[in-house]
Design brief:
heterodimer, A: mainly beta, globular, B: mainly beta, 5-stranded mixed beta sheet, 9 strands
Chain lengths: 114, 109
C-alpha cells in the first residue's frame, strides 16, 4: 500500500501524559498536513509542511503541540501534558506542492485522554 | 469558518442518482471547488474538483453554476458503499482545506 500511513491507529492515555503520533506520506509528496477532527465536526487544520519547513500553524496548535518533519519525509505530532479536550481523531494528509491541492488522507490516529 | 453551506443530511435509494448541493456564494475567482467524502472511521477521500467547467471522473460528476455561487455533486448510481459524509470545500490551488460539517448521505436499500 503506497497511501498515507499513520501510527498508531488508536491511543489511550491518561491526562498529563505526553503522546506522539507518526505520519508517513505518499513518497513523492512534499507537502504534509495535520488536521484534528472531533465527533460530528469536519476536520480542522492544524499545521502543514513543505519538505522540512513548517509553513503554517493554526491558532488551534497550542504550545503543548509540536510537529516536526526532520528530513522532509515522515512527520511526528507530539502533544505534551494531554488534556481531556485533546481527545479527537488526528488526521495526516499529503499532496504535491505543484498543481492542484489534492490531499490524500491517512486513516487517522484516534486519541482518547482519560 | 467554512465558505460553503450544505444540507446536513440526505437520503438516496440504491441505484438512483444522488445529487448533493453546495452553496459557495463568496467564492473568489481563483478558488476551486473540491469535494471529499468520509466514510465512517476512515480519513477523508478526494472525489473531484472544478474551477468553472463541469467535471466528470470515474467516481462522480461536478456541476458548477455559471456564476460559480453553487455546485452539485452527482453520484450517478449510488450504492450502499457510498453512504458517507460529503464535504464541499472552496479553496485555492495550494491552500489548506477548510471543512464544514458536510452532508451525511444515507443510501437506502
Amino acid at each position: 500500500d503506497t497511501g498515507v500511513s499513520q501510527d498508531p491507529r488508536h491511543k489511550i492515555t491518561k491526562r498529563g501524559q505526553n503522546v506522539t503520533f507518526r505520519c508517513d506520506p505518499i513518497s513523492e509528496h512534499n507537502r504534509l498536513y495535520w488536521y484534528r477532527q472531533t465527533l460530528g465536526q469536519g476536520p480542522e487544520f492544524l499545521t502543514y509542511f513543505q519538505n522540512e519547513a513548517q509553513l503554517e500553524k493554526s491558532r488551534l496548535l497550542s504550545d503543548r503541540f509540536s510537529a516536526e518533519r526532520p528530513k522532509g519525509s515522515f512527520s511526528t505530532l507530539e502533544i505534551q501534558r494531554t488534556e481531556q479536550g485533546d481527545s479527537a481523531m488526528y488526521l495526516c494528509a499529503s499532496s504535491l506542492a505543484a498543481g492542484i491541492n489534492i490531499q490524500y488522507f491517512g486513516a487517522g490516529t484516534r486519541l482518547s485522554v482519560l | 469558518d467554512a465558505k460553503t453551506t450544505q444540507p446536513p443530511s440526505m437520503d438516496c435509494a440504491e441505484g438512483r442518482a444522488a445529487n448533493l448541493p453546495c452553496n459557495h456564494s463568496t467564492i473568489s475567482g481563483n478558488e476551486y471547488v473540491y469535494w471529499y467524502r468520509q466514510i465512517h472511521s476512515q480519513g477523508p477521500q478526494y472525489i473531484i474538483h472544478g474551477l468553472k467547467n463541469n467535471e466528470t471522473n470515474e467516481m462522480a460528476s461536478l456541476i458548477i453554476t455559471e456564476d460559480r455561487k453553487s455546485s452539485t455533486l452527482i453520484l450517478p448510481h449510488a450504492t450502499l458503499r457510498d453512504t458517507a459524509v460529503y464535504y464541499c470545500i472552496v479553496g485555492g490551488a495550494t491552500n489548506k482545506l477548510i471543512f464544514g460539517t458536510g452532508t451525511l448521505l444515507a443510501v437506502q436499500p
